Amino acid sequence: MPRETHEFQAQVKQILDLVIHSLYSNKDIFLRELVSNASDAIDRRRFAGVTRPELLPAGEFAIELLADPGARTLCVRDNGIGMSRDELVENLGTIARSGSAEFLAALQRDQGATAPELIGQFGVGFYASFMVAERVEVLTRRAGESGAHRWESSGDGSFSLEEAERDEAGTTITLHLRAVEPEAGLQDYTDEWVLRGIVKRYSDFVAHPIRLRIEGDAPKEIEEDLNSREALWTRPADQVEERELFEFYRHISHDWQDPLLPVRTKIEGTFEARALLFVPQVAPPDLYHREMAHKGIQLYVKRVFIMDECRELMPEFLRFVKGVVDAEDLSLNVSREMLQQDRQIRAIRRHLVKKVLDALGELAENDADAYRRFWAAFGPVLKEGLLVPDEKPERILDLVRCHSTHASGELTSLAQVVERMGDDQTCFYYAVGESLAALESSPHLEAFRDKGIEVLLFADPVDEIWLAQLPPEYRGKSWRSVGQGEVELGDESEREAAAKAREEQADALKGVLAAVRAAVQEDVKEVRVSSRLTTSPACLVLEQGDMTPQMEEMLRRAGQDVPKTKRVLEVNPQHALVERLSALHAADAEDARVTALAELLYGQAVLAEGGRPEDAAAFVSRLNELLLAGLEPGS
Ligand code: ADP
Ligand code: MG
Q: Could you tell me the domains of the chain?
């Protein structure tokens, strides 16, 4: 195969451009990225070797740094899994990660001060090499293949690819270094002490030996490994510096930022395990791409790395948690299939879930600001836990924060709501909808506002689902949707008086309510006098236990055949429009304006909840008819 030239994917070009034009002030981290990739590649070869021993190397696994001060090159060489030709093109020529487009868009909107943090969430990994090198060569051979390939680029829009030779499987990255320029943060990356320092700082805990050899005119073999390879989680907590902990987090998470919250735990008893877990600061762009997002937990057995992406150790609603679990009593040959049935794994998982939830509870108590950030990033995911049958909902409800009519822009906990409502109120009132703005102006809230009763506002898509299947009580209070069933507020005598008044009104409006119902019976199953409206003329509500329109829509999108649930149209007897309608009807039950007004009442109830009348054109023409009638001079 002759030498071929390939264009980088447009997004990669953008990233390279950002990287080269010194987006990062700290250039040293290129080495952390290359070492981390080498370490990942070794882990993958080791794991592949469990079932296919022929893929394992003859010698021991190691990462070697070969520095040549005269030639100004630095090689990072590993005997990991290597890459096939296709993998080379795919991994080092495109950005396959979902969310990269959104990321770049965000970056463009936000050029400047916060850009490094933004790009940090994304992590440019391998491309960081171009901060320190004007040309990068990758020589790689995939374990199990005989041929090797050379990839080469100057980071200027294209890379070349050709067949090559390599003695054994693995990868060598050769950096043709830029000139040393301390003011620009470019150190001499061929200097023994510079390299030692960087490895110690960023990669000390990497589980494979990192060795250094100086080549060229004054060759020198450094005898000892550059890294201590110490498993951080085996050291007593007070002997691990935060800096080390955070570097370790970055290594395992591929995140470029500090974590929000580290969680250490130890399981003792019939079996033993330790875990070092982290909650990140910021949601990764692929958090909602289920397949992509669940890769946080690495499994070790007795300090030996077993596998990445161990889903069995963390439920989906905690898929943002990253970290390491080290079990003492599992077999080193444990496979994914075995894990699914393993009792010990299930027990570890239960323990980890409890620890993470406890730690989040403590965070909420001790650092409200950090908790708010956590909730903004991961709240909707955590609430998915309320849908899991064997999860205790109280534990998650303790952590839930939501908007409310009484918290004006702030988030509130349910415990605070309980405190505010006092003993007399027996339930949480809540409204679910598509946006906070629509909820806040919903007619359903009018009576509650009027009486000063707090209503919780939920606007995440997941809220619709968990609220529909909540356990009956939390902290002794039940749940009531403000858009469902009849509303009965106040103490017993108030409620009785209200019911009586409503009955009288219903009686007085009997004829006109029937006429309205006849006009809109396609869409509503009942028309009644409302107890929840104070300013709006009408609203739509569900009967207790009926499915919400949002839920119906969700099921329909999931391919289920759900019949349309008709709702109840409630009218406000005090509203001038309803009074006028009643008068029109009393004067002439056949007056065409009665039907027109009835349809308008229904249409505006749909509009008021942020919906759209099914036949918008007919709604508008009705509206115009009535407007014109009303605007008749002298009428
Ligand atoms: P990340 O490590 O976050 O996946 P990188 O940009 O660091 O992103 O690396 C991109 C991909 O290139 C890796 O996921 C891996 O598949 C491949 N890769 C990089 N370095 C090596 C290596 N030394 N050996 C094998 N594969 C590698
Ligand atoms: Mg990487």
A: 4-221 (3.30.565.10), 232-368 (3.30.230.80), 402-481 (3.40.50.11260), 492-631 (1.20.120.790)
